[in-house]
Amino acid sequence: MAILALGINHKTAPVEIRERVSFAPDRMTQALHELVSCPHVNEAAILSTCNRTELYCGLDEVDDQVVLAWLREYHALGGQDLIPYIYKHPDHHAVRHMLRVASGLDSLVLGEPQILGQMKQAFTAANDAGTVGKTLGRLFQHTFAVAKQIRTDTAIGSSPVSVAFAAVSLAKQIFTNFEQHTALLIGAGETIELTARHLKESGIGRMIIANRTVERAQQVASEFNAYAISLTDIPSHLAEADVVISSTASPLPILGKGAVETAIKSRKHRPMLMVDIAVPRDIEPEVAEIEDVYLYTVDDLQEIIQEGLKSRQEAAKQAEEIIDVQVTHFMGWLKSLDAVSTIRAFRETADSHRKAELEKAIKLLSTGADPAKVMEQLAHNLTNKLTHNPSAQLRQAGYDGRLEIIDAARELFNLKLPDA
Questions:
Q1: Most buried residue, 73, 214, 290, 295, by most Cβ within 10 Å?
Q2: Cα(283)–Cα(184) distance, rounded to whole angstroms?
Q3: Is 316 within 8 Å of 105 (Cβ atoms)?
């Protein structure tokens, strides 16, 4: 069985190409069935995200042209539309690629964890469609286990490398018992959505989403079980917030020193962390002068992000070492499959001899023959039958000068020759 990983990603193809090669979730089952109907393709799974589309195939033999032709035909693309952007990884290269993808080493953001969940979804879809067999099934499970090991044994995902992640990491450093605190997020764009996701994953107790249009705030809030308000309602809720993270496109500040001073008094000077991600700034710089308020800007976060990137790059080196070992382990298992049919045939032959000699022995015992002699005869006959063919083949190999066969037999049967 051969393995192939073929696809495009954010490194090899622009978004207009990636869009044309994506797979709609509601057509995934049909696509998988079409793919495994191609010559030589026995198993298949498809990973399709905004940053990559990859086909993972188990084949009789590595034939990337068949898979590439199917991909072009499925998306009605011309012969040269994909060629400059496609990468192809056969066998152990495919295994290495899948392990790197699942571990976040091939992602736009080094070490990001979302890709692992997307790979699990791809496996589930293929498994439900019945297009995953023994080889890909084992490879996916191995991939998930290695990705988990890398997350556990390295710092690949522990350091902030995005503004949203850095802001939440800062909040977790300042506040313990995160589940007992409230976060106010101002804005409803992509950065605030990502911040809300990190806060939820970190176990924040409560979230308030404030936006100029309440309808948009409600859309974001509904996804994270948060409470939506308008920007004009912020002064009424500001005192509830232990963490304030703001990212809007407003040309003027949204929060002034006076509003924050009022909130701090209502909080009886319990600390408040404020992170202003917006450019231009949403929070007046003078707010930093207020006692018990800790104000950070996007420039302050950049230092945290650079430290995080350096930490992840060091962790990535450790992850690559783990992957080197695990690729070898998987390929060893895959190669062992070639011996399975031979082992089965050998065992079946031995069992056939056992049954035949046992049947003879039982008949002799039923006639009153001496049990000791019957057992001796059983052992003698069984030994002769099990060793006859190997002995004959070894004699012929010696006669033909095929010494490699004799050496293999010594290793296979763990034979120690007597001293000369």
A1: 295
A2: 13
A3: yes
Both tokens assigned to 221? 């809030």
- The size of the chain, in residues, is 420
In a domain, 419, yes or no: no
Integer angstrom CA distances of residue 356 from 370, 376, 379, 389: 19, 15, 12, 17
**CATH number, residue 268:** 3.40.50.720
First to last CA, the chain: 45
Q: Quick one: how far is CA 55 from the chain centroid?
A: 15
Residues 361 and 397 both lie in one domain: yes
- What range does the domain containing 280 cover? 163-303
Cis peptide, bond prior to residue 280, ω within 30 of zero: yes
Same domain as 144, residue 214:
no
Same domain for 354 and 323, yes or no, is: no
Q: How many domains does the chain have?
A: 3
Sheet holding 41-48, edge to edge: 41-48, 52-59, 2-9, 87-90
151-202 residue pLDDT tens: 999 989 877 788 888 899 899 989 989 999 999 999 999 899 999 999 999 9
In this structure, are 217 and 111 located in the same domain? no
Task: Judge if 173 and 283 occupy the same domain.
Answer: yes
376-406 pLDDT tens trace: 999 999 999 888 988 888 889 888 889 888 8
**How far is it, in rounded angstroms, from Cα 209 to Cα 216?**
9
- Provide the CA 33 distance to its chain's centre, in angstroms: 23
Beta strands, E only, 96-191: 182-186
Please list, in sequence order, all residues whose beta carbon lies within 8 angstroms of the beta carbon of residue 156, skipping any fewer than 6 positions away.
Answer: 103, 104, 105, 110, 111, 150, 312, 315, 316, 318, 319
Q: Give the residue numbers marked as catalytic.
A: 50
Q: 3-class DSSP state for residue 192?
A: helix
